[in-house]
Design brief:
four-stranded antiparallel beta sheet, QCT, WD40/YVTN_repeat-like_dom_sf, Glutaminyl-peptide cyclotransferase
Amino acid sequence: MERNRRALAIGVLVGLLVVGGCGGVADPAPRMNIEVLGTRPHDPKAFTQGLEVDGDVLYEGTGLAGASSVRASRLTTGEELARTELPAPFFGEGITVTDATLWQLTWHDGVAIARDPATLAERGRVRYDGEGWGLCAGDGRLVMSDGTDRLTFRDPVTFEPTGSVELTSRNGARLNELECAADGSVYANDWPTDTILRIDPDSGAVLATADAAGLLPATARADADALNGIAQLPGTDRFLITGKNWPTMFEVRFTPA
């Protein structure tokens, strides 16, 4: 009961701040519900920074300096297919697969690493300016976040920037892990909150928001960090969601509130 009262109070406060800070105009984005369809175990030691599904392979990138990795496992069975560790001081961030390359970001290092998707062996490195947070691939381009409310587009082969867009609402959001959905939209975790944004990457409009605060039980929250993993299951309207050091990965569907 006490937790519910605190959540209600915080919700009212946030609502007042949004209205007051935007000249009386509230966030226009509609809400999405999160329908949980199933769960699967997730490594509670994995400081998840990127999640991607390509065919029957689930890729996961993890962070922390000296403890970052990229893992590939069979989606249906959980069998580990490959794993590679990043040497210190690299801090791994978002990952995505495009054509025959797995791209991996680093946080403060300004380095994108190109890998073989099957073996995860490094093929090359590209420098970029600023921080690396989330990454996804769609419509023949890469979409990258840097911890601000801006998305940067990059060439999937050279990693060179080709443009950018800022959110038209939810300004100040810290876009983190990204998923380029099949419908052309981009789903983004707003760090360090439990909010997921659905974004039109061409205009920067926030199309909808979802609150994942109740996804992980309170009993599992003590050792868990922020929500930070979202990947669409190919050919479906379902997504996998998890977080840093979460013991569970959720299979969900986003539905209109």
